Every structure is written in C-alpha cells, then in structure tokens.
Amino acid sequence: MKQLRLSGLEALLVTPQSNFINVGERTNVAGSKKFLRLIKEGNYAEALDIARDQVEGGAQVLDVNMDDGLLDGKEAMVTFLNLIASEPDIARIPIMVDSSKWEILEAGLQVLQGKGIVNSISLKGGEEEFIRQAKLVKRYGAAVIVMAFDEAGQADNYKRRIEIVKRSYDILTQVVKFKEEDIIFDLNIFPVATGLDEHRRNALDFFEATAWVKQNYPATHVSGGVSNVSFSFRGNDSIREAMHAVFLYHGIKAGMEMGIVNPTLLTVYDEVPKDLLELIEDVMLDRNEEATEKLIQYAEQHKGGKKEKTENLAWRELPVQERITHALVNGIDKFVDEDAEAARNLVSKPLEVIEVFLMNGMNVVGDLFGSGKMFLPQVVKSARVMKKAVAYLQPYIEAEKDKSRPSAGKVLMATVKGDVHDIGKNIVSVVLACNNYEIVDLGIMVPAEKILERAIAEQADIIGLSGLITPSLDEMVHVAAEMERLNLNIPLMIGGATTSKVHTAVKIDAKYSELVVHVNDASRAVAVVSNILSKENGGDFKSNIKADNAHVREVFLKNVNQKEYLSLEQARANALQLEFTANNIVRPVQLGVQVIQEQDLGVLAENIDWSPFFRSWDLHGKFPDILEDEVVGKQAKELYADALSLLNKIITEKWFTAKAVFGLFPANTVGDDIEVYDEQGNTQQVFLTLRQQSKKAAKIPNIALSDFIAPKTSGTTDYVGCFCVTAGFGADEKAKAFADAHDDYNAIMVKALADRFAEAYAEFLHTEVRKKYWGYAIDETLGLEDIIKEQYKGIRPAPGYPACPDHLEKSTIWKLLSVKENIGVELTESLAMWPAASVSGYYFAHPDSKYFGLGRITEEQVDDYAKRRGISKESALQWLAPNLA
Fold this sequence. Notes:
Elements: E1 4-7, E2 11-14, E3 23-24, H1 33-40, H2 44-56, E4 61-65, H3 73-85, H4 88-91, E5 95-98, H5 102-111, E6 117-121, H6 127-140, E7 143-147, E8 149-150, E9 153-154, H7 158-175, E10 183-186, H8 202-216, E11 221-223, H9 237-254, H10 274-284, H11 291-301, H12 320-330, H13 336-344, H14 351-370, H15 376-399, E12 410-415, H16 423-434, E13 438-441, H17 448-458, E14 462-466, H18 471-485, E15 492-495, H19 501-508, E16 516-518, H20 522-533, H21 538-562, H22 568-573, E17 592-596, H23 601-605, H24 611-616, H25 633-652, E18 657-670, E19 673-677, E20 683-688, E21 718-729, H26 731-740, H27 744-773, H28 784-788, H29 809-817, H30 819-823, E22 826-827, E23 833-834, E24 838-843, H31 859-869, H32 873-880
Parallel strand pairs: 3-4, 4-5, 5-6, 6-7, 7-10, 10-11, 12-13, 12-14, 14-15, 15-16
Antiparallel strand pairs: 1-2, 8-9, 17-18, 18-19, 18-21, 19-20, 21-24, 22-23
C-alpha cells in the first residue's frame, strides 16, 4: 500500500500503525508569545531553542508559522528555516510550513530541506489558483493539507465534504498528477450539541465522510481540529475532555490519522463514565432527538465535572504576617480589614503595617512573579488586597499626620496625546505599585507639555509613555525631542501594542540623549525600573541599553537601504489584476446608511474570540488550549471563570450599550482612489488607498485596496462598505467605580471585556452584512473558529492597520456615515476612537480580496498622497512616517 513519507534529515513513515502524528506548534507566532517576541527582535538563536525543545519533547513534525501583521512573514520564514537546516538535532524531523498567505508558503518551500507539509490550499480561490498552487507544491516535493472549502464556502455536511473531496482529488491526481499518498484532507470539524437541528449530524457527517475518503481513496489521509467539536461546552472541561475522547475514538475508527489535539485535554475513552459516554455517543452519532437536551442537562448538573471545593480556612490560625502574606499571594480580600487591624495593634505607628507587614507580603508576590510562579492576573488581585488594606489604614495614618510612606521611586505614567487606550498602562502601574513604586498616573490623551510639567513638579524618577494607535508613535518622538530641548535627564520608558524595540531605537532614542528603553510587556516593567534606579547597576544598564539601541538602529537602517523599491508608476503598472463580472459583483440587498442603536450583548458574547483577552493579561496561548497549558493553564482557568462571571453581570444588568452604524454604497476606482457614490451616481466621498512599493518576485503584484473594486473605466458599477461599532458606552463608568473601590482587577477586567465585545460586534456585523444586508454569502455556514481564521469571503480592513495604515481615512468614514451624529463615537485629534472599545473599517466583497501589509513606501508616494488628500507634505509625512522607507 502507498504510504506517506515525510522527512527532515530522518524519514518519517506514516502508516496505519502510526496512530496520531504529533505536531509541535510552539514555533507559531500566533500561538506562542515568546516565539513571536524573539522573531520580532531578530533573536533567532533563542527561537531555535524553542524548536529544539519541541523536538526533544517528542514532536514528530514541527509547525512553523510567521503570520503576524508587524512581521515581514516571508523574510522571517526563510531566515528561520535556513537556520533550522544548520541545526541537525532540529532538522532531523519534517517541517510543516504553515501560513494563510501563499507567498509565505512558497518562500518556505523554496528553502525547505527534506519533505515537509504545506498547510494549506483549497478551492476557495477557484480551480485555476488551486491547480497553480498544487503544481508548485508538487514541484517543491511536499505533502499538502487540502481544506474542504470551495468557491461556495466551507463544507458543512456529508454531501458537500464528499463533493469537494472528489473534486479536489480528481484535480490533484488527474490534472496535477499529485501523489495520492501526499494528500491530507482537512474535513472540517464543527460543534455538536448546539441546540440547532442543522448541527445534529456535524460529528456523524465527519465520521461518515472520513470513512468514505478512506474507502474510496485509501492512500490519502484525514485531519481536523478536534477541539471545535466541543465548542458548545466551553468552561466545562470534564465534558469537553470526554467529548474529545469519544470523537477521537470514532474518528480513528473511521480512518482519521491526524488531528490538532491538546493531549492534556484528553481522557481515555474507557474511563468516561458510562452514563456520560452513552449521552455523548447519542449526540455524536445522532441516535435520538433528545440527545442534545439530555447532554446539556447532564452538563448543568455536573458543572466542570469536579467536586465542590470547601473553603480551607486553616491559614486563619497562622500568625498575622503569614495570614497577610497568604492573603496577598492568593488575592483574598475577605479578611483584609481584620488582619490590617490585628497588625496595627502590634506596631507603634499604623504606617509600619504598610512598611513591614504588607511590604513583606508584596515582596513574596514580587519574587513569585519574577520567577514565573505567579502570573499577571494574580498580581493584580494581590494589588486589590494591598489597596484595600491601605484604604483601611489611611484614616489612622492621617490622624497621626504621617504621610511619609517611603517608596522605591516615583514613576509618572501617561497615555500620550490623542490616544485613549490605557489597559496596558494600568496593568503596568498596578504591577509597579505592588513593588513599592509610587505611581503618578496622568490618564489618557495627555499632551507633551503636561507630561513634562508634571514630571518636573513631581520630581519623577522615570516617565512611562503608552499608546496603541500609530500616531502615538510620533507623539512619543515629540515628547522625547521636547525632553532633549529642555535638557531633562529623566529616563524614558516606552510601551504599547504598536511600539517596538526597533521603533524605540530608530525614532525615539535618536531624539533623546538620556536613557530610552522599550518595555514590551508588564512582566518586564519591574526589572526595568529596578535596573534604571539601581545605584550599583544603573550606570551600566543605561550604557548597555544605549549601545543596544544604537546597534538596532544601525542594523535597521542597513536593511532598509538594502531593500529595493519600485517607482510609483512601476508599482501601479504591477497592480493586482482581478476580473469584475456579474459572477463576483453582487448588488447589496440594502444600499445606504443603517444604524443599530442597541445590540443584544448576549448575542455578541457568543462571538467573542478569547485568545486576545488572555494576551491582554500577559497569558499567551490559543483559546481554549490555554486553559490546559502546563505553565499558565491554572491561572488561565481562574481568569476565564472570573471573566465569565463578570460577563454575565454585564449582560444581565446591561452595563454596556453596543451600537453600530454601517453603509453599503455604489463605488468605482480611479487610480488608487475609490469613489463612493449615492444611488443617483453622485460622488459622496473618496477613499484614498496606498500601494505596495517594495520590489516583488516575478508575477507577484504590488497591491492596494483599490484593486479590489472595479475601475470606473470598466463601465461596471461595483460596491464598497464601511462601518463603526462600539461596545464602550458604560465601560469607563464601571471601571472607575471598581477603581474607586480599590479593585483594579475588575476595573481592568471591565475594559478588557469591553474590547472583546467591540471586536465580537465587528465580526458579528460583518457576518450579518455578508449574509443579509449585502447578501453575497447568503449560504455561509462558518463557525466562530473559521471566522477567527478569516475563512469568509471578502475582507474588513481597518484604517491604521497593515493594509491601510492611513488613520486619516477614519475622517472620511465619519463623514460618510455621520458616525458621531448617529451613534456618538468620536475621533480624537490623533484619530483614536472614543469610547476606546470601538472598531471601524471597510467592507470589500470581491472573492479574491485579501488582507495584506502595505510595507514601506517611498517619499514619491507620500508626495502623491499629499496632493490627492489636499494636505501639506509635512502633514502627510507625519501620518505616514511609520511606513516611510
């Protein structure tokens, strides 16, 4: 029988006896925060250590993915694979080149040694593109994962799976002459027990389709993402574990050989309780109409499947210091007043309770956090206990008029002018305060002059600047330049999602002769501040950071100068050429502007992508796998439970108000501009797009968003949409109420959940537009996981993001939709949205439209853009500086 043969330096033969193939996934920038950080910093040596750990841990195949908006994915993939090739202990196993972008897949294949796997190709883009990609995979000598996806969408029943498998198989074996043993079908695993009749056969259809594939094409292979099947039972791990075990038992029986499975979320099939086993098999095999209801009832009666925990209060018999330390480490605020009072009776001054008892406890917290034995959410809970204890003691301290609480140093924190995002800044402030640093928090949208005035008046030891949107980067540069002009010598810390070590070194450090250091996450803040203020090591730390920044700047400028760029005329001549026909242009069902004044939060909760929520708390991993992560799983579960509890209150008590405005309009492109018309054909607004200018490989186009809309010269009317959604009304008030009650943990949680609701609303509304208001994907049946993976037709790019970094486009959207008048969302002077938990962007429907990164552009395009926009070149440079070559 034909068998799949893979190889690195050593061969891997996939036989029926191989059982499951274990794929190491930590060399994936989407799944490992550490790996992403190392790749961004160019620290490939440590990144290779992660790959080595995966191999030593038993990985049979190594998955490598470089899909991140701030990375040059193609360059990173090639560099990393070349380095792997020089490490025999890693290179001995096969590589799975993983990307949603064909150019990255091909770049990886060009340098891959041995025989690896391409993840993935499909008929989504049509037969011509499928054949082209398959021929290239074959030429490069790799196996391939084929998604059960075609031009009509994702296969969601037995018939559609077989239809796509047949068509894919015939094309691959007859047209491409692809070896059948090198074909791996991903047959799409969907949730069961959702309560919808159309989902009853989701698992059974998969099993039957798998059996059909193995019977008709026995040399091919079947794969899928197993965790999807239990999605309806999120939060109930015991039920999910049992469902995975049952699904795998029947899947493997049917012929499934590969699957994305978290081994720690598995239980043995034979160990599933017999009553639960019967219920799950009834659901999986669709054995009766009451199966779903019965399983749900069982799950309700066995929440989490764990015994009820009784509160262990033995620690209450410990001495006062140990009780306080225990409460701080475990975030228990139930007895805080009682223990603070007990400690006050043991000291001569109430301030000593803080200086001795509380700080001793917080030192333990700091040590545990620094050693990786505590995580950020736990530290924030510790801060809550600390603040409540201090609040209890404050009247006694005031009575003695002793306000001289010593601190380790004073740090002034601010979100820069024009920016309203402060979750990260608030977390860093809490972490530093827990380590006895005095925090002066100026809040959001703080102009440079106010920052520097307060820093001087407060005699701040350090200034910390935060920001999320790209204009904030330039504002930070301005603050640094002002500090230099005023001859200040205060160290400067830089943080925020769009900031980076490279930008800090190249743009900010170059403007300020004193110390400038980038802090990429809260866990590093304490070490950085401690080093800066250290009398023994502060000088060496400063000189080392300065030298490192200079080195990063030198390498960056050298690399930029080595890259080749096309003239704007050449780039436009190499534009993406798409077909615009009646088959791919659909007139929206409903044209014009529409407003939704209040969206059901419960519906939005079902659309939440939880992975970014955990990242905001410095817990990195993909949901739901993170809940069983060996390192952070326990804390992730606790955080998730707290989030769900608060989420329920937000929904039932209507803490937030979610609103939306969107519009669908006739449109055509003129050059790189998109003219937006009313129904009479009059131009309402013009969207300006920017075009890639880096020199591409042969037949690779230089893309602009305008390429996805039919040119005016074609005589064909096309359509474009835009939107703004918010879930932020009410969030700030609730966060302030928690903060005023000394509960930073829930204050931060409220804002983090508001952000999740806003992103969920953006995804939900886009789905509604595709299926209902525009109607170009009426039959779409994607699950949440597929939507998160952007497997839908069309795109919704947003101003400020890689495809369209021009924030000024928000002003055009605001005018076209009357956003402020319709739903109250405003733009700051730096074009940040207020409330912060808001999302805006465009809608493109062409089936070949795709997300991409603009990359760097030349000054020639900046000149052209300034003329089209009707602004000065200086202003254009200010907005586009991060993308200037």
